[in-house]
Structures are given as structure tokens and as C-alpha cells.
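thought: fold this chain, then report.
action: predict
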Amino acid sequence: MSETLQPAPAPASTVFSVVPTAAESAAHFAPRVEFDVDVSDVHAALDAGETGFVVVDSRSRAAWDQGHVPGAIHLPTREIAARAADELPAGTPVVVYCWSPGCNGGIRAALELALAGHPVKEVRGGFEYWVREGFEYETGDGQRHRFEPDPRVNVHPDGLTGAACFGPAPEAALGEPIACAC
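observation:
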């Protein structure tokens, strides 16, 4: 007589008060991988000269002028329905970002762009993490800037004890952050 092995029950925990199956977990996370992209991956693709997508900044003019990803198109969320057809060729794949993971402006912009006929991915972490990773950005006057990576996000080879190498945290160096107003 053969016995079917059963996984051990999850221990009682507030974290796992509901325990999804592996299949349910895969069904949940697969779309997130398909529709989200990390700032490091976007930077690497742009740095390699990949041309198969357009980067869209969906924040306000004030936030755009404060700093944005080099080469991005400024298309505020509220203007996408009216301007997307004029700004982006039909069907162009788009990578969209807003301010940060605490803002849902990128999600709303991604939806608007998808409704306008574009395949879309949202940049996980938004512009906040672009700067925190230490990637170059440009301001409204076209000047390029770069801060050293934030040690709380991007660990220096010397470890967190090497924080003195990084200078001020990006938010301190940028001054008061401008709300994305999306």
C-alpha cells in the first residue's frame, strides 16, 4: 500500500493565517512579473541602447522639471487620453513611471496607455528609486545630475558601513520633493 505524501501544515502565524497553494502563488505573481519592470532593468536596457520601447513619465510638470529619466517622454496621466495618439506611434511598447511605490499614478497611467492601445509595463519604484539607485537623471533645463546610490537601497561593496561613501540621501540633496499630482 503506497501513501501519498502530504505537505506539512503551515505553522499558525499571522503572516500565514491564510496559506495559498503553490499554484495560487504562481497565478498571483506571474502577472506581476509580466507587467512590472525594475528600475535597474530599465537602466540596463537604456544603457545598452535598446530601442524597443518608450519611457513615459506620468508626473506633473513641476515634478518633471525637478528631474526625470533621460530620454523619457513627459505625458501626465491626466493628458494621456488626449495626447497619447499624437505622442506615441500606435502600439508602441511603453514603460511608465510616476514618483514612487507609494503612489498609484504609474498604475493609473499604465491603464490609460493600455486603453490607448499600447503594451505597458510599470516601473517598480518609480522615479524615487531611479534616483536612489544612483542613476543619472535630467532636469527641466536639460542639465544632467547623479547622486551616489542610497545605501538603504543599493548596498556598497563595503557593505552598509560604507555609507560615508554615498553622500546625502537623494531626498535631502533634491530639496523638498514635489508631489507628483497625478
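thought: worth noting. The beta strands are 36-38, 54-57, 73-74, 94-97, 120-124, 137-138, 144-145.
final: C-alpha cells above.
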